Amino acid sequence: MLELVPVSTESKPQVDVARLQAAFDSLRANRWALSRTTAAERIAKLKRLREAIIARRDELAEAIHQDFRKPALEVELTEIHPTLEELNHTVKHLASWMKPTRVGTPMLLAGSSAHVRYEARGVVLVLSPWNYPFQLLMAPLIAAIAAGNAVLCKPSEKTPHTARFLARLVRDVFPENEVALFEGGAETAEALLQLPFDHFFFTGNPRIGRKVMEAAAQHLASVTLELGGKSPAIIDESADVQAAAERLTWGKFLNSGQTCVAPDYIFVHESKKQQFVDAVKAVITRFYGETEEARQASPDFARLVEPAAWRRVKDLVDRTVAAGAKVEMGGVADGPSRYISPTVLTGVTPDMPIMEGEIFGPVMPVMTFRSRDEVYAHIQRGEKPLALYVFSQDKRAIEDVFRNTTSGGAVVNNVLIHVANPNLPFGGVGMSGLGHYHGVYGFRTFSHERAVSVQWMKSLASVFFPPYRGKAQDWASRATRLLE
Question: pLDDT digit string (tens) for 369-401?
């Protein structure tokens, strides 16, 4: 069961508020110069960043491994490659993104033209999480730089080795009046939230997301919240069960389940339940080892980030099993190494502890259904998820799922891959987030879209000038109605 966490009697760490303020002031003093930079100048900065990442990729992999034993290949696939892909995509398209976009004008405004200009928001704050500590700081940073902003970043204190790596990387690539990075805990984050940033970008949980949104409201600043939630996976009677088992096992246990878009729980049609469970158990054995000892020794399975996270997930499993769920595989926990084995639970019902909130750990709850309406009722009762996964060969059934659910993103017959496509917006809806980024969507998130109208010749608007009476009024009234 859950171990008690001793209450600390230590005072909170002191935050150098003056240093934070000085960094902010330096960024703000430079923000207009940055906003006027050309596409070529911004691309040069992004290329320097790309070269530095490539040169230090082994150092980065070691830092993340020290924080929670993340396998080197997972670092490549989920941290380094997506970041380089985002950089390459941005470098390729930035010049076209920065160009003003022409828009049409109505007949009543004949003689004028209109366009939208993309302008830097100013000084922006990026607060990043620990679960993908490199990629989830770099992706918004790339977009903010591309849009011409000055940026202040704070990585999570829960991954200190990666935070120190990020601090060195940022310091070596950017002047402090362009990009500043501060390490520190919650106290540092709270101090940063007091500063009047022009945009707040936060990735984390809804509880802290509310605080960030409240801080942004105090400054009437824009905000992007990338949160999480219980992302469902639905396997219907037409699905390729073996493919579903392989892909869901990978997506669930990647990073030891500490992924905001991980399939949080599985709804499988009752006719496919045993076939699916058997397939998942076989895949876990193939991925991580035939015995529990082999799985615990596997270099391919990460650890939970901290003792508190380990205790929370272990407690969820213990209470769910006590409530009647069956451990089909796994259920082993080792506190000193923060290890929880890849765990599959069946007999799960919606009222069990494992279904209370986002698991964020290597536990796969499996529930069954007869009718999709049961699935829809469950999903609609809960908060809107960040992702939804549907496995089916029936196109009508897939469309029916989309008509009856909502989510930040969705994938058909796979998991997670939408996050790796820079042409798609990534973000949540409702409790799973606000706003989106990646590719052009990130550029626009960190840009103000300025509406501009230009009058090139005599304006028809002059016929509507006062005084509003006589023939002029009658003609103007007839003209507007004709143009409706």
Answer: 999 999 999 999 999 999 999 999 999 999 999
Q: Known catalytic residues?
A: 226, 260
Whether residue 216 contacts residue 239, with contact meaning beta carbons closer than 8 Å, is answered with: no
Report how far residue 246's alpha carbon sits from residue 259's, in angstroms, rounded to the nearest whole number.
17
| Contacts for 141 with CB less than 8 Å, ≥ 6 apart | 126, 151, 153, 179
Q: Is the pLDDT of residue 478 over 80?
A: no
